[in-house]
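Bench notes, afternoon.
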Amino acid sequence: VQLQASGGGFVQAGGSLRLSCKASGIHFGINTFGWYRQAPGKQRDLVGSITSSGSANYADSVKDRFTISRDNVRRTLFLDMASLKPEDTAVYYCHTFHRDRNFWGQGTQVTVSS
């Protein structure tokens, strides 16, 4: 299983970014996927997740600003981030659980300046 994340970058507060995570080695359509983030010196926290049916849920800190979606044909997970804040600065990871194991993407840095 491989998860390849991309799309991070530097953006000013109030701006937007889209992260992508392309998966291989699994039956993409039946898996639940999540996005996590880890700021310097802090634990890795769940941003949100999306089920195989497309139902998404979010952490309170990003609700109404972030949207998780999936394209089962392209085997890709997305995280659309809007109204970004400096406190959203972190390394973002995509995640899935497959055959009793956790799999993580390599992480992509998002930096939001004030």
